[in-house]
């Protein structure tokens, strides 16, 4: 069964250098070449959800530059509806500078560009039109805090399942917990939001799902003991975007009606498979690939 997902988040172009190791402050490292990939946590998750069979609408912004043209074309080819990705004159499309080391770990700096101008009123309008046929809204935080708030308020206010990926943790997130989004922080982000998971789940009165990289996933429901999901074996080439694949597949499966536990386990395998290819999107798997890996 498939579902309908709305993603609200950033669109970037990633400029990636693979080097033996990540640079320290003030240090230069040299790799063989710079490669460009599609990026941005919102766009990456949208592609992962679409590859997983969901109908996906992305709400965000790019510039009117050539880079924006390319980003939109790539998203459309991936099956993502970009009708609500605004083209903004006078600002560049978002860009990320990424170094990936020999172990697949990364270091990322983002120039927000058009993402910093995603308009909360346009987010609200687009969501109001889309929510009646939407099974899950996925929101990430590389866009203005007012736009993040608009998305979470609209989705939860309409009673639609809302996944909030607080990457990075920005001040508005604390105030949005009372709306009851399903939070999907990584370990560090969870620690920034609350002293422990039980407290965080109490504040949201909703599931909290923590991605632990090579250690799998831990999730907790309010008032219940945490559930640990073991890591799926992975061949690590590039971990960039693994969290985005996790969130996109989680949203796709929740929109399709899966219970949380099944959706988390599927997303956990999908994220593990995603790190075997370079770039943030190329490794996002299909349902058949995840099913084969689970056999
Ligand atoms: O999560 C990975 C993404 O973070 C990259 O694609 C980069 O664009 C940044 O948004």
Task: Explain the overall architecture.
The chain has 295 residues and is an alpha/beta fold. Helices cover 35% and strands 24% of the residues. The protein is built from ten helices and 13 strands. It has a six-stranded parallel sheet, with helices on both faces. A four-stranded mixed sheet has the order 3-2-6-7. Helix 2 links the parallel strand 4 (55-63) and strand 5. Helix 1 packs across helix 8. The radius of gyration is 18 Å and the shape is globular. 51% of the residues are buried. Alpha-D-ribofuranose binds next to strand 2, helix 1, strand 7 and helix 8. Alpha-D-ribofuranose binds at residues 10, 12, 14, 39-41, 44, 96, 108, 110, 142, 240-241, 243-244, 280.
Give a concise summary.
With 295 residues, the chain is an alpha/beta fold.
Rounded to the nearest angstrom, the distance between the terminal CA atoms is 20 Å
> Hey, roughly how much beta strand do the residues contain?
15-25%
Query: What is the overall pLDDT average?
Result: 97
Low-confidence stretches: none
Order of helical and strand elements: EEEHEHEEEHEHEHEHHEEEHHH
The rounded Rg comes to 18 Å
Instruction: Count the DSSP helices.
Output: 10
């Amino acid at each position: 069964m498939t579902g309908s997902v709305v993603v609200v988040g950033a669109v970037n172009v990633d400029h990636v250098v693979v080097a033996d190791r990540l640079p320290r402050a003030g240090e230069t490292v040299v790799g063989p070449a710079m490669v460009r990939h599609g990026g941005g946590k919102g766009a990456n998750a949208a592609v992962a959800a679409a590859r997983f069979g969901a109908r996906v609408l992305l709400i965000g912004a790019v510039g009117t530059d050539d880079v924006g043209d390319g980003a939109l074309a790539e998203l459309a080819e991936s099956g993502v509806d970009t009708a609500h990705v605004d083209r903004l004159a006078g600002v560049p499309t978002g860009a990320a500078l990424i170094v990936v080391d020999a172990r697949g770990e990364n270091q990322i700096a983002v120039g927000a560009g058009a993402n910093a101008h995603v308009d909360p009123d346009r987010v609200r309008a687009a969501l109001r039109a889309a929510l009646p046929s939407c099974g899950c809204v996925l929101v990430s935080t590389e866009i203005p805090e007012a736009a993040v708030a608009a998305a979470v308020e609209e989705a939860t206010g309409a009673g639609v399942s809302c996944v909030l990926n607080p990457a990075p943790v920005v001040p508005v997130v604390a105030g949005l917990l009372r709306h009851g989004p399903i939070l999907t922080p990584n370990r560090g982000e969870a620690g920034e939001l609350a002293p422990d998971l039980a407290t965080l789940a109490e504040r949201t009165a909703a599931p909290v799902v923590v991605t632990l990289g090579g250690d799998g996933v831990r999730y907790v429901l309010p008032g219940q003991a945490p559930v640990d999901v073991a890591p799926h074996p992975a061949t690590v080439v590039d971990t960039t975007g693994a969290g985005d694949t996790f969130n996109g597949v989680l949203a796709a499966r929740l929109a399709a009606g899966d219970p949380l536990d099944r959706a988390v386990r599927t997303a956990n395998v999908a994220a593990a498979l995603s790190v075997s290819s370079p770039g943030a999107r190329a490794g996002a798997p299909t349902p058949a690939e995840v099913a084969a890996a689970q056999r």
